[in-house]
Specification:
The strands form three sheets. The protein has a five-stranded parallel beta sheet with strand order 2-1-3-4-5, sandwiched between helices. It has a four-stranded antiparallel beta sheet with strand order 6-7-8-9, with helices on one face. A three-stranded antiparallel beta sheet has the order 10-12-11. A hairpin with a 2-residue loop joins strand 8 (142-145) and strand 9 (148-151). By secondary structure, it is an alpha/beta fold. It folds into two domains: 3-119, Response regulator (Rossmann fold), CATH 3.40.50.2300; 128-223, Arc Repressor Mutant, subunit A, CATH 1.10.10.10. The chain contains eight helices and twelve strands. Residues 126-223 bind DNA. Keywords: DNA-binding, Phosphoprotein, Two-component regulatory system. One of its GO terms (cellular component) is protein-DNA complex.
Length: 224
């Protein structure tokens, strides 16, 4: 799963772009200013950064300059309404991998993200995952068993995908909550238990699949 740090202070645009990227199988962490961007970059080390230029507290050029002091590898894509040639040149000199002018189409952004990741030696996460006799389509959010399919929510897809990717390994509860619900003040450990129970029901037709609760630690998906 590709983790994107998306830095944009325009809330309506950020919501549209975040939802679109998540629908295409990306994990998106959205922050609204440059100072938050630096904190999140240092804490989570994203696979790629999509960075607005004109923001409060710290502009995108300054953010990129600070990031490049310690991180020369993570791709950075600037999104900006600044269209002057000197602005584009300045962005690349600061270490940007790409520069997209606003307004843009989400399809263009996705293509640019994929290109930057491939150039950086990373590969896109597969769109379909197999677990037992089930197939999880991460793009369409469908869990298929034989001729029947179940439509999953975005968070259900992300949680199941994480468990599948870490098959036979314990995924810590704290890691799940921090990764997928860090911005949701109403989400609790009990809420996570509800999500796990729901996923167990989705997978119930294949008796070989088990999601074990490792008490006090987390969850582990296995196939006998």
């Amino acid at each position: 799963m590709t983790n994107i740090l998306y830095v944009e202070d325009e809330e309506s645009l950020a919501m549209i772009v975040s939802d679109s990227l998540q629908a295409h199988g990306f994990m998106v962490r959205h922050v609204t200013n440059g100072q938050q961007a630096l904190v999140f970059h240092n804490k989570y080390r994203p696979d790629i950064i999509v960075l607005d230029v004109m923001m409060p507290l710290m502009d995108g050029f300054t953010v990129a300059k600070e990031i490049r002091k310690t991180d020369l590898l993570t791709p950075i894509i600037f999104l900006t309404a600044m269209t002057q040639t000197e602005d584009v040149v300045a962005g690349f000199k600061l270490g940007a991998n790409d520069y997209i002018r606003k307004p843009f189409k989400i399809e263009e952004l996705i293509v640019r993200i994929e290109a930057a990741l491939k150039k950086n030696g990373q590969s896109m996460a597969p769109s379909k995952l197999i677990i037992g006799d089930y197939t999880l389509d991460c793009i369409k959010s469908l869990l298929t068993f034989g001729d029947s399919s179940e439509k999953l929510s975005y968070r259900e897809v992300e949680l199941l995908k994480r468990l599948i990717e870490q098959k036979d390994k314990v995924v810590p509860r704290d890691e799940i909550i921090r990764t997928y619900w860090s911005n949701d003040t109403y989400f609790t450990g009990r809420s996570l238990d509800v999500f796990i129970s729901r996923i167990r029901k989705y997978l119930a037709q294949d008796e070989r699949i088990k999601i074990s609760n490792i008490r006090g630690v987390g969850y582990m998906l296995s196939v006998d």
